[in-house]
Amino acid sequence: MKPIKVAMIGVGNCASSLVQGVAYYRQNNSSQGLIHDKIGGYGAGDVEFVLGIDVDARKVGKDIAEAIFAQPNNTKVFQQDVPLTGNKVIMGKVSDGVAAHMTTVGDKGFIVANDTESDAADIIKAIRDSGAEVLINFLPVGSQEATEFYMECALEAGVAVVNCMPVFIASRPEWEAKFRAKNLPIIGDDIKAQVGATIVHRVLSSLFAARGVTVERTYQLNTGGNTDFMNMLDRQRLGSKKESKTEAVQAMLAQRLADENIHVGPSDYVPWQKDNKLCFLRLEGLQWGNVPMDLELRLSVEDSPNSAACVMDALRCAKVALERGEGGALIGPSAYFCKHPPQQFNDNLAAQMVDEYISETPLAAE
Fold first, then answer.
1. Is the pTM of this model over 0.90?
2. Beta-carbon neighbour count of residue 100 at 10 Å?
3. Percent of the chain with pLDDT over 70
4. 308 CB-near residues (< 8 Å, 6+ apart)
């Protein structure tokens, strides 16, 4: 089978883990660590990275396989041997994709390239010339204008989209309608981790509800040392991120909590943690006879590899949709792989919906 041709906006830690993973699964005939071994006949190694778009001087102009290891990337290197792709990272459009404070912290932040910024015509041409079929959005949290700029480019270039960050595109009817009108699939918004803070919080919330325990209060506190957490020190960029993570948890509760009784979101930047993310969860509830109980949990994960399995499945679902001639938001895959999909479902049902979607004979027809 021909590989799935993928372009990426943002060549940071998440891109690094994804590119490393494709090289890893090409060299290792294993399904270990994958949610689905095959989707539409495509394995995790059946991806070709044909275009990278970034604005950091240490990445622009480099082969994608080299750029993923450039600073300020600091995720775990689990695959040293990543062959050159023959495709370079091009200069994108800065817009609001770079927070002002991120340019003042030296090697740990962004060093914006002096290259002339690309306009829409440049980006559209680059996507078309690359032969990309699926575009992955890895822009930083808070990049509202930049995301909308690239989404317009994707529509014009005629590519499917996996929106991994919390600017709401697939879940906004006006944007979803644009993709449906162009008959282009989109999966979004805000990618979940394989086993991360949000999915664990959702499962525990569902468990309380299933066992008749009323959740009174809950929080999720996260710390990390990657550029994502540094970027989110600017609290003005956090609106959609907090909404995305909070609604993902609220959707699993038996009764919606008042705003003052739920706190979900990034808490602080700890440089020495690098790409390791620490999550602290607490749920306070009432069980039989209104007797109180509480649960506390500490989760430690390498943040970017933790999302790569979901991204890999999502991009393969997008390719399947292209082959089937389907456009608009993919409801099941969006619900299973993303925190803020067009429609929320519990994770077991969303998993069944994905299995039905990728099966050759849909389960609903059996």
1. yes
2. 8
3. 98
4. 14, 17, 18, 21, 194
